[in-house]
Amino acid sequence: FCPRNQPGKGVVSGHYLLLKSEPTVAEVIAAIDREKDFTEVVFCGLGEPTLRLKELLEIARAMKARDYPIRLDTNGHGSLINKTDLPVQLVGLVDKVSVSLNTPDACTYVKLCQPDRGKESYEAMLKFIRGCVANHIATDASVVDLPGVDIEACRKLAISLGANFRARHYVADDEV
User: Fold this and answer.
1) Residue 99: C-alpha distances to residues 5, 9, 32, 36, 106 (Å)
2) 132 contact partners, CB below 8 Å, separation of at least 6
3) Residue 96 neighbours by CB under 8 Å, 6+ apart
4) Residues whose CB is less than 8 angstroms from the CB of residue 72 and which lie 6 or more positions away in sequence, other chains included
5) Strands in 2-69 per DSSP E
6) Cβ distance 64 to 92 under 8 Å?
């Protein structure tokens, strides 16, 4: 279900999303400053935004100085990837996080999401959600309504973690 695991990598709904190179912090800030018609800055993409944590935090600081609301859409592996307590670093910079919960248990998660670090990634994601909630960052846990995913169990898990729950409809390329 993830574009990174599909044939034609980088193409979503007919749009090619891969970049030739990663933009610099200055390039991202300049691009945002050129735009005027938006209500929030969202860190997301074809890949995990926290892989470039230093840049993400620097851009978030610059956008907060401009009073923009900031959201992070993530797989929740940022603390594991960066060996840090990421929710603490997000306080005051990120207003909202949307975490891809995806499944109610580690075994299904590993099978569906194929994370690099297996079940450790699932546990890290749950810990990240708890950390964001504990640090008073508005937190959504989301699930894609794929066959074999127990949506109700995911909802109960999200609520037990203190997060809001959001189920998203899976849109196959032939539905676009």
Assistant:
1) 19, 22, 23, 27, 15
2) 87, 90, 97, 99, 139, 163
3) 69, 70, 71, 72, 137, 138, 139, 140
4) 42, 43, 44, 49, 50, 56, 90, 94, 96, 97, 98
5) 11-12, 15-16, 41-43
6) yes
Q: What is the token pair recorded at 58? A: 């620097």
Phi, psi at residue 118, to the nearest 5°? Answer: 55, -140
Q: Which two tokens stand for residue 25?
A: 């912090």
Distance CA 165, CA 159 (A): 7
Q: Evaluate whether the domain defined by 3-175 bears CATH number 3.60.15.10.
A: no
CA 107, CA 119: separation in Å to the nearest integer? 7
pLDDT in tens, 157-171: 999 999 999 999 877
The whole model's pTM is what? 0.88
